[in-house]
């Protein structure tokens, strides 16, 4: 489904990604791990066309993403839940959801299905984005991405700053998406929850992939945590 090979990217003259490569198959959940500043968000930005790669290959279902604008990449089926949620503060919950709706890949996700999935959003449908709690904003950000009917859902720090109960609700939601066969690329700080949910993990260190493996392999290999993931 998604193939990333030897990806290089940076900001201005500063290279940040030197050699990033991984694959995501249909229905798979893959995480990008690594300490702060190692290039996880930049990898996601490169996938979405928000940072222009300086080298390597990005292909989605055999089609190159090179040089495509973000809206075209979204149309191909990559749906982003960005870091910091970025919901529209002056639109209602319903308007936020409708703003991104796209039925190009079938009607799997409709307004009603998003409300069934996150009943809190149904309760708050008339509230403005700015009136929501952090957890509700996060559900809205996920709902908004689902409304694009993405084939690959990408979440960047979706549980950051949330209370444990709300965080669990988000993890349960992602678990339900997995059961439905939704492919997901995940960046988050909660390693245990990710190990339970994901199939495979890719560890970044200063813009290079230094380890990749299954959840079982990650759980069994303490040295990966000690060497690449502890602050
Ligand atoms: N807009 C930007 N302009 C210049 N440098 C940037 C920019 N965004 C990120 N960087 C730098 O790129 C490097 C990788 O950052 P990135 O956000 O991809 O890391 P990350 O692994 O997602 O970390 P975090 O968990 O802190 O978000 C860091 O050194 C960071 O300072």
Look at the structure and give the CATH class of the largest domain.
Answer: Alpha Beta
Low-confidence stretches: none
How widely separated are the two ends?
33 Å
Strand order of the largest sheet: 6-7-8-3-9-10
Beta fraction: 25-35%
Sum up the overall morphology in one term: globular
**Small molecules bound in the structure, each named once:** adenosine-5'-triphosphate
Structure at a glance:
The protein is α/β, with parallel strands linked by helices and 231 residues long.
Write a structural description.
This protein folds into 2 domains: 1-75 and 154-162 and 185-231, 3-Layer(aba) Sandwich (Rossmann fold); 78-150, no CATH class. Helices cover 36% and strands 26% of the residues. It is built from 10 helices and 10 strands. A hairpin with a 2-residue loop joins strand 9 (200-205) and strand 10 (208-214). The chain is globular, with a radius of gyration of 17 Å. Residues 11, 14, 16, 34, 36-42 line the site of adenosine-5'-triphosphate.
Main attributes?
4-stranded antiparallel β-sheet; binds adenosine-5'-triphosphate; 6-stranded mixed β-sheet; 231 residues; globular; 2 domains; alpha/beta; Rossmann fold
């Amino acid at each position: 489904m998604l193939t990333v090979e030897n990806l290089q990217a940076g900001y201005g003259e500063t290279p940040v990604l030197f050699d990033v490569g991984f694959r995501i198959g249909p229905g798979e959940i893959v995480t990008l791990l690594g300490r702060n500043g190692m290039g996880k968000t930049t990898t996601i930005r490169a996938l979405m066309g928000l940072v222009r790669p300086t080298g390597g290959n990005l292909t989605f279902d055999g089609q190159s993403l090179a040089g495509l604008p973000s809206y075209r990449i979204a149309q191909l089926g990559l749906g982003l839940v960005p870091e910091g949620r970025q919901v529209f503060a002056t639109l209602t919950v319903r308007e936020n959801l409708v703003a991104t709706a796209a039925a190009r890949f079938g009607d799997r996700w409709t307004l009603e299905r998003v409300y069934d999935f996150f009943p809190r959003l149904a309760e708050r449908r008339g509230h403005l984005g700015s009136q929501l709690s952090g957890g509700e904003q996060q559900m809205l950000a996920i709902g908004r991405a689902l409304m694009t009917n993405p084939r690959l859902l990408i979440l960047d720090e979706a549980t950051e700053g949330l209370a444990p109960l709300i965080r669990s609700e988000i993890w349960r939601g992602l678990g339900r998406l997995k059961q439905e066969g939704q492919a997901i690329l995940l960046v988050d700080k909660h390693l245990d929850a990710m190990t339970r949910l994901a199939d495979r993990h890719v560890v970044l260190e200063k813009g290079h992939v230094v380890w990749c493996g299954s959840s079982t392999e990650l759980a069994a290999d303490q040295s990966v945590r000690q060497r690449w993931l502890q602050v």
